[in-house]
Amino acid sequence: MFDSGVGGLTVARAVLDQLPGERILYIGDTANTPYGPRPIDEVRALALGVMDELVDSGVKLLVIACNTASAAVLHDARARYTLGKGVPVIEVIHPAARAAARVTRNGRIGLIATQGTVNSSAYSDALGAVPGVELISQACPRFVDLAERGVTTGPEALGVAEQYLAPVRDAGVDTLILGCTHYPLLVGPISYVMGEDVRLVASSDETAKDVYRALAAGDLLRDPGAPAPRHDFRSTGDPEAFAVLARRFLGPEVGEVTRAARPASSERDARAEGAEHAGRPVGARRTVPVAAVSDEESA
Predict the structure, then answer these.
(1) What is the value of pTM for the model shown?
(2) What digits encode the pLDDT tens for the residues 101-157?
(3) Contacts of 213 (CB under 8 A, 6+ apart)
(4) Following CA atoms 152, 73, 209, 84 in sequence, which dihedral angle do they give, to the nearest 10 degrees?
(5) What percent of the chain has pLDDT over 70?
């Protein structure tokens, strides 16, 4: 499982709750956070680099616990890992869209997300087959920064929430998709601004259900008689800073956080570093880590 930072821990929490016997390998690409403002090709290069390293570590399933990365790389990831290597890939956009379509009463669904996710139209595409649904989208780039700094309550968070959410609230939505895995960490100010009549939908629980379905369908569920799993948390940035937030948001499951390999910040850098360090011609793709579900002996 991977994300650009701590936001994907909301998905990790749901997976741990629904599949307590599975081992989690989570990598936060904090050296390159946030993904939202980056060009789609750069996000794709970063995400594929992380997933390459995870698959090389022997994980049995990949979770793209980032909406921006899901929008940018899902097709490539499934071709590369599921078709190419037999590793299922789970994303976070379709689970949230399914849940929102199921609970809306008036058909007016709000979406708050990073600029990259909004620009991708991934949620519009996911909801396109649902009759009578109107999507009102709003980019909320500062939410990721607030979450990464641990500022999830107080006047700053509330002021930013009011600024971003007032137009969505005034549009009369009855359901709001939290279209970034960081945003559930700000559920307090978000719910306050939107009001108690608006249903908030996050992808975490639905994504965890998809993880269970994929593991069960592939006969990949961990042996219930196996020893208690040991989870592995890594960060491409400062491990200590990541550990403080990870323990705050996830809890005692987070032990020592180690430094992961650092993805190159662009496709050109990825190619150059790959050639320099692996002796390959420029044009080969560099590999870097991300988080996933693994067997006890994996990763």
Answers:
(1) 0.85
(2) 999 999 999 999 999 999 999 999 999 989 999 999 999 999 999 999 999 999 999
(3) none
(4) -150
(5) 87
Bridging pattern class, strands 23-28 and 175-179? unpaired
Looking up tokens 């994504």 gives 207
HSE of 167, CA atoms in CB hemisphere, 13 A = 11
| Contact in structure between 296 and 60 (CB atoms under 8 Å) | no
8 Å CB contact between 16 and 233 = no
- What percentage of the chain reaches a pLDDT higher than 90? 82
Query: If you search the block for the tokens 């799993």, which residue do you land on?
Result: 229
The answer to whether the beta carbons of residues 188 and 152 sit under 8 Å apart is: yes
List, for residues 237-280, the tens digit of each pLDDT value: 999 999 999 998 888 889 899 998 866 554 444 444 443 333 33
Catalytic positions, please?
66, 180
Residue 55, token pair as written in the block: 């698959």
Separation CA 99–CA 203 (nearest Å) = 8
User: Using CA atoms, how far apart are residues 174 and 193, in angstroms rounded to an integer?
Assistant: 13
SS (H, E, C) the chain: CEECCCCCHHHHHHHHHHCCCCEEEEEECCCCCCCCCCCHHHHHHHHHHHHHHHHHCCCCEEEECCHHHHHHHHHHHHHHHHHHHCCCEECCHHHHHHHHHHHCCCCEEEEEECHHHHHHCHHHHHHCCCCCCEEEEEECHHHHHHHHHCCCCHHHHHHHHHHHHHHHHHCCCCEEEEECCCHHHHHHHHHHHHCCCCEEECCHHHHHHHHHHHHHHCCCCCCCCCCCCCCEEEECCCHHHHHHHHHHHHCCCCCCEEECCCCCCCHHHHHHHHHHHHCCCECECCCCCCCEEECCCCC
